[in-house]
Structures are given as structure tokens and as C-alpha cells.
Amino acid sequence: MTRQHTATPDTAPAGHPEPENVPAARAASAGGAPSAVPTAAPAPAEAATEWWRDAVIYQIYPRSFADGNGDGMGDLPGIRGRLAHLRDLGVDAVWLSPFYASPQADAGYDVADYRAVDPLFGTLADAEAVLHEAHHLGLRVITDLVPNHCSDQHVWFRRALAEGPGSVHRARFHFRPGRGPGGELPPNDWESVFGGPAWTRLPDGEWYLHLFAPEQPDFNWDHPAVQDEFRSILRFWLDLGVDGFRVDVAHGMVKAPGLPDIGRGAQARMIGSQVLPFFDQDGVHAIYRSWRTILDEYPGERIGVAEAWAPSVERLARYVRPDELHQGFNFHYLNTAWDAGDLRATIDTSLTALGTVDAPATWVLSNHDVVRHRTRLGGGLDRARAATLLMLALPGSAYLYQGEELGLPEVTDLPDEVRQDPSFFRASGQDGLRDGCRVPLPWSGTRPPYGFGGGETWLPQPDDWAALTVEAQTGDPASTLELYRSALAVRRTHPGLGAGEAVEWLDAPDGVLAFRRPGGLICTVNTTAEAVRLALPPARRLLSSRAPFAPTAATAAAEPSPDASPVSSLSSTRQPSNAPQDNGIPGNPEDFELREIPADTTIWWEE
């Protein structure tokens, strides 16, 4: 398909006006001054654009994005004040991790009230202001929804505890008698993802199920009151103006009848590799068909996105059938090593499986639960940049995690006393080190808190991040921030990047990927440590992951030197600083086949 929702950089999607002065707005975003809240959010475009099929969506982890009141914790006013940064970056939509009322036992994924904003992050009026400002800047907003479990402070669970065994409210959760002569053993052998048993015993003798922390009891989705409540929650936020939902633990909710034993331990390591009695049960799909009818009632193409760990991309595709959710995270791609053969196999398998249900592929490298890809992939910043440019060239939608546009590494040396990941305090579950990707962002200045907010941040920032701030990187053609801005500008200007449902592979030596995209674009990826020679059709370099862009020595003589004029199809206010600046693309008079491909990712434009 074509990117109908994003024309040229001189125009904006229908209903979302483009700012007139991008450089001025970019400077304002570095300084953090919000614009006034408009009196009304522009109405979404009525024409079907299927914007979500190739959208670039940016994840905001509210605690760590920007602090608006100086208490060291990110919040909604801070987010609103920095949205211009995302407009200038060139993304299509924003995904907000939870900001609901919560005791914060698991950083807001333990929700006490799904219709209220936690005072830690602001008010419901602040949430509305974020929506208005985002829409004013041409950004859609997706919010997190946490339906598998709630907080133990949720009014339903508090009443369940107070009313005792057999009560109406206990039926809305999974309460069971224990095993053994005195009921002293858990009802089954299920383990918490965070480590330890998935059951906690109450003084009255009953046990309740929590697949995560004990403060996060699982809902019983066989109960009609649970289903009715979440349909109402969807409508509440859709009426407020959100453009969709990212569904947390979308593979959860439904449990196998009888809650059977698994028969082995280390169950957290089995997630995503096989079907478990508490995850990826077929019954979840009826829930999503019900939700899809609600999403389709609203104008503006509201969407649902599944965070689903499934043992295969074929099972993942079930979540995005035409009458269910619109997208599903491709964790198989996130877990693929930086190896040309493995990458090609994952790309092919993903596109084939999703093509059978006419769903777009999604590509993601980092998020709030995994080690940042600059650190995880090895090879440092150069490899991280190359991986990003490859991801943005693939057909489908791409997700960016806050801070990756700055080239942030994982913070691996946080002292134990500052850690807040609940799994850090439990055994035999996740590694408990998710705090390393959640450290607050650096915006400006030469030392912490780097313009994040007031004083000490909720997680400490490294002392050597001064060169990684938005302020330091803006305008530097060698910076990772300008590479991301360039790549997203090129993606908007050349809609072959992200479009379609397949790639056309070209012959390439071991360790190298080469594929053609619509509109005469070619992507080459050298995953080795050495430059290689590759035969290509006549083409000109459009963008490279190396910093800054420069023709290699082998091709410099054959390719014209850049001049000061802008790329002909790019607006001067959207000029990608990392792209070669040429007039008349295509039209290279030189015609040669062999190219030297360094250890990077390069986008070429065929002549």
C-alpha cells in the first residue's frame, strides 16, 4: 500500500496541521516550552487511510520522559511540554505507558482505577491536554490498557477480600482452596513471571492467582462483569479522544479450564516458546473480536495493538486477523541476533505469516522491558544505528522506544538500593534488571538531571550523558538524533520505505542483506565487520547509518560530491541532515555495478 496519510513533508495528515516553522519548533522542544492548548482537538480524518499499517510509533514511558513539576518523576505536563520533539523527529503516533491511578507496585501496571490519572502523573485534565496538544501537532496517541490483572487496591479486589469465600466479587478473580491436608499448598504449580509461586494465601485459607506480583491479582475473564467493565473502559478513553490501545499481556486473560499443572519449573523461560495453560489460550480471541466492534464504531481509525508473546509468528498472526486487533508486536524480530541469515529468516517468516491474515508486520528493537538494543546487539552505537535503518526500511509499522533516537545505552551499573523493578526482589523469574532501560531521558545541560526536571531523578542518570542530550545532538550531522530525523524524513518522502507486504531479495554474499523496496529504493545491510564488494543496479546513496554520511573511498571518485542544495523531493525545513544533498535525483551519469559496502546499512535510490 502507499502512505496515503503522509503526503510530502510540506503537508500534514488531514485534520492534523503541520507547524510552519519546524526549526523554531525544534529549538522550542529542546527547551521544553509547551504551546498553548487549543480549544478543541482537530477531528480525525474520515477517509480510510489505514494509517497504522506503516506508522512509526514512539513509546513514552511516562516516569522517564520529562518532569513537569520538578519532583524528579516524569509526568503528563512534562510529556505535553516535549511533544514538539516527537513532531520534529517525524513519528506518526505516540504510545503512552500506564498513567492510571496505581499504588505503583509495578510502575503503574498495577491499576487501581482505570478511569483516573494517578496524582504522580497529574490529573485527567492533564491527560486531555496531552491529547489536544498531540493532535494539534499531528500526532496520534495510543494508551496502555492492562486487562490481565489489576491492583490489589482496586475496589473489586478490596471487596473480594472483605466479603470472603464464595462472594460475588471473588468470582471476578481466581480464588481457589489450596491443596494438601490443610490447604497449605498452592492450587497448582504455576509460577509468577516475576519469580516465586503465582498464588498467595489469605488468612481465610483461600489462595488467589497473580501471574505477576502479589499486588497484581488476575481477573477472571470468564466472568461477564469483567468483560462488561473493560468494554466500558474502552469507551471512556475513546470518548476522551485516544486513538487506540496497546494491550498489555494480550496473550493472558484466559486460563485453561481446570487450571492444570505444568509439571516443570522455570516457567518464565517458556513464555514465547510454547503454549502455556495461562498464556496464549484460544479464548482470548473472542475478547478481541468484541473489542474490535467497539473500535470500529469510532471515527478516525482507532486501533488495538497486542503485546502478545506467542510461540510462533503463526500464532501471533491470530491476534491480528481482520476482525481482531490491528497490530501485534513482533518479539521474534526483537530477539533475532545481528546475523544476516537469522534476520532474513525472521523477516520472511513474519511477512508470510502476517500476509495470510492481511495484517501489517511490526518491527521493534527496544522497549521498557528489554535491554536497549545499542547494548543488547553488541557492536556498540554503529550496529544500533544500522539495525534501526534496516527496521525502518522493512514493510509495515515500526516502534521506537524513548531515548533510542539519542543512542542511549543500557545503564548496567545501577546500585541495588535504587532499583525498583519488582522482579529484582523475587527469585527465579525475570532477571530483575529492567530499570536499566528506564533511566530518565537527558534533554539539555552538562550534568544530571540534564534538563529532565527539577532535582534528583527517580532513577539516577549517568554522569557521562552530556553528549547524548537532545540539545547537544540537535544540528550535529554525525549525531544519532539527526540520523533518526533524517531516516524518518526520507521514509515520509519516499513511501517505498514501510510500504507493501514483501521485500524483493537481491543476491548478496554471506553476512549481507540486500533487498529492493517500491519506488526504486534498495537497502543493503552488512552485518560483518569488514567491507564487502556487492553488485548493485545503478543507484545513488540516499542515506547511510554511518556517521556522518560520506561516500566510501572506493566510490567517491565515481559519485558526484555533495553540494549545498537540498534533495529535490525534501522540504528545506525537513531536510535530513545525514543524507547526501543532490539535485536531480535520480540521474547519476555514472554507471557501474560493483559497490563497496561497509559494515553499515545504506538506502540507495535506483537511477
What overall geometry do the principal axes of the alpha carbons give? Answer: globular
How much helical structure, as a percent, in the residues? 10-25%
Tell me the fraction of residues in β-strands, as a range: 5-15%
Structural class of the helix and strand makeup?
alpha/beta
**Main sheet?**
8 strands, parallel
Q: How many strand units? A: 20
Radius of gyration over C-alpha positions, nearest whole angstrom? 24 Å
Name the poorly predicted regions. 1-45, 549-592
How far apart are the first and last residues' alpha carbons, in Å? 22 Å
Mean pLDDT: 85
Q: Total number of helical segments?
A: 15
What does this structure look like?
It contains 15 helices and 20 strands. It has helices at residues 22-31, 62-65, 76-89, 124-136, 155-163, 224-240, 284-297, 313-317, 331-334, 340-355, 373-376, 380-393, 470-473, 480-493, 553-556; strands at residues 56-60, 93-96, 100-101, 113-117, 140-145, 175-177, 199-201, 206-209, 244-247, 303-306, 327-328, 362-364, 397-401, 504-505, 512-517, 521-526, 532-535, 539-544, 594-597, 601-606. Strands 11-10-9-5-2-1-13-12 form an 8-stranded parallel beta sheet. α1 (22-31) packs antiparallel against α3. It is globular, with a radius of gyration of 24 Å.
Secondary structure layout plus pairing:
Blueprint: H1 22-31, E1 56-60, H2 62-65, H3 76-89, E2 93-96, E3 100-101, E4 113-117, H4 124-136, E5 140-145, H5 155-163, E6 175-177, E7 199-201, E8 206-209, H6 224-240, E9 244-247, H7 284-297, E10 303-306, H8 313-317, E11 327-328, H9 331-334, H10 340-355, E12 362-364, H11 373-376, H12 380-393, E13 397-401, H13 470-473, H14 480-493, E14 504-505, E15 512-517, E16 521-526, E17 532-535, E18 539-544, H15 553-556, E19 594-597, E20 601-606
Parallel strand pairs: 1-2, 1-13, 2-5, 5-9, 9-10, 10-11, 12-13
Antiparallel strand pairs: 3-4, 6-8, 7-8, 14-15, 15-16, 16-20, 17-19, 18-20
